[in-house]
Design a protein that fits this description.
Shape: elongated
Strand content: 15-25%
Mean pLDDT: 97
Distance between the termini: 21 Å
Low-confidence stretches: none
CATH superfamily of the largest domain: Glycosidases
CATH topology of the largest domain: TIM Barrel
Radius of gyration: 23 Å
Helix content: 25-40%
Strand order of the largest sheet: 11-10-9-5-2-1-13-12
């Protein structure tokens, strides 16, 4: 039987944005904004979501990735009891909880860094960070230099080859599991992390919780270097993310099909046997509705997200078709405050929301979509059909990025009864082929059982 995470449909929440928390953490008192997230649990369940990735959560100075305290929920969101309640209520609704692990760097207000500022060469934490050099200076004029993530000097790079640092962070993870009962960690900047540290993390988390999930943010490179039996279970599939919008904007299904063939083809796909984390937008990239030239393509985009190999994820708000762009270095456009009742009442795309719900329903217990082999069936610039095959059942998916209807003759991957996955209508196959009529910018999903 496959693990919960390979069958999951994720919802992604950036809580500081969703709750409208202040940009800077100057509050002395705890403000319990996290309680506003409790009604979202029912909303997630209605969408067919089975796991939530929520973060960053822990005490930080600004955007959440400049950690001050790894064991304390950010006071702008609430306290540890608030997050415990969120996890408990999510679990009661059948939703697993995955948090952000920001282990590549800390903020400048983290205790170990403050100790170096105070005690300079006399600090016992000099070895905790990369590149500490008292002969240099930095933009904050501390009188010493250090390595920063991408030269963002508010983010000080931890020295993860130092076992003392690793032990501290592994203790943090044990604390999160015991205190909050989380089910997994999404590792920020996983492509910067020390491989030995990730191996230790995999061993420790497996001991603490057998089905604990580790997923890494990796943008470029060979994903198999990170996603393997020794380190992480999964990584972000940025390669597919790019194809999902540009393949529609350019009327070029070859781009998406080439990516999937390279990654997952049943004969020779380089990531066969791995399940990557799929998404069409997140807190770092423009909303999918802002990226599509023709917004009618949104349905095919989500069809592909939910049925191609991978773990699908919906970013909060995108189920209502909201837009949002990065402006220069400002991410606010992708991380808006949203009121659930207001969004449901003023939904500009109810058909989209209903379709995402239907796709969530389709994924439930669907082994062909969770772990079926991928096989390409038809490919042109504007039409694409493929199968996901698991033992005696298959799912056939056909998509059309043309602004006109299309007729498609699709070979059956297995013999059996064919049914439209959404309407339940029986479809007849002639001569081992399905003859399909696809709407303009439309798609079809067909279930086949031997």
């Amino acid at each position: 039987m496959s693990k919960w995470y390979n069958e999951a449909v994720f919802y992604h929440i950036y809580p500081l944005g969703l709750t409208g928390a202040p940009k800077e953490n100057k509050e002395e008192k705890v403000v319990h904004r996290m309680r506003e997230l409790l009604p979202w649990i029912d909303h997630m369940k209605e969408l067919g979501v089975t796991a939530v990735y929520i973060g960053p959560l822990f005490e930080s100075t600004t955007h959440g990735y400049d950690t001050r305290d790894y064991k304390m929920v950010d006071r702008r969101l609430g306290d540890n009891e608030d997050f415990k309640e969120f996890v408990q209520k999510s679990h009661e609704a059948g939703i697993r909880v995955v948090v952000d692990g920001v282990f590549n760097h800390t903020g400048r207000e983290f205790a170990a860094f403050c100790d170096i500022q105070r005690n300079r060469e006399g600090s016992r934490y000099c070895g905790w960070y990369k590149g500490i050099n008292f002969g240099w200076n930095n933009p904050y004029n501390d009188g010493f230099g250090y390595e920063a993530w991408r030269n963002c000097f508010e983010l000080v790079n931890l020295n993860l080859s130092n076992q003392e640092v690793r032990d501290y962070l592994l203790d943090v993870i044990r604390f999160w599991i015991k205190e909050f009962d989380i089910d997994g960690i999404r590792l920020d900047c996983a492509d910067c992390l020390d491989f030995e540290f990730m191996k230790q993390m995999r061993r420790v988390t497996a001991q603490e919780k057998e089905d604990f999930w580790l997923m890494g943010e990796v943008i470029h490179g060979d994903y198999a270097r990170w996603a393997n039996d020794e380190m992480l279970h999964s990584v972000t599939n940025y390669e597919l993310h790019k194809g999902l919008y540009s393949g529609h904007n350019d009327h070029n299904y070859f781009e998406i099909a080439h990516t999937i063939r390279r990654e997952f083809d049943e004969n020779g796909g380089i990531y066969r046997g791995r399940t990557l984390y799929s998404f069409v937008d997140n807190h770092d990239v423009d909303r999918i509705m802002s990226k599509l030239n023709n917004k009618d393509h949104i349905y095919s985009v989500y069809t592909l997200l939910y049925t191609l190999p991978g773990i699908p994820s919906v970013y909060y708000g995108s189920e209502w078709g909201i837009e949002g762009r990065k402006v220069g270095a400002n991410d606010d456009g992708m991380r808006p405050k949203l009121d659930l009742a207001e969004m449901e009442e003023q939904n500009a795309y109810p058909k989209l929301t209903a379709y995402i719900q239907a796709l969530g329903e389709l994924r439930k217990g669907n082994e062909a979509l969770a772990e079926g082999k991928y096989r390409e069936l038809v490919l042109t610039n504007r039409q694409y059909a493929y199968a996901r095959i698991h033992e005696k059942e298959a799912v056939v998916v056909a998509v059309n990025n043309d602004e006109a209807p299309a007729y498609l003759s699709v070979p059956l991957p297995i013999a059996g009864a064919c049914v439209d996955a959404f309407t339940g209508e029986e479809l007849s196959a002639e001569g081992g082929r399905l003859n399909l009529e696809l709407d303009a910018c439309g798609s079809m999903v067909i279930r086949i059982k031997e």
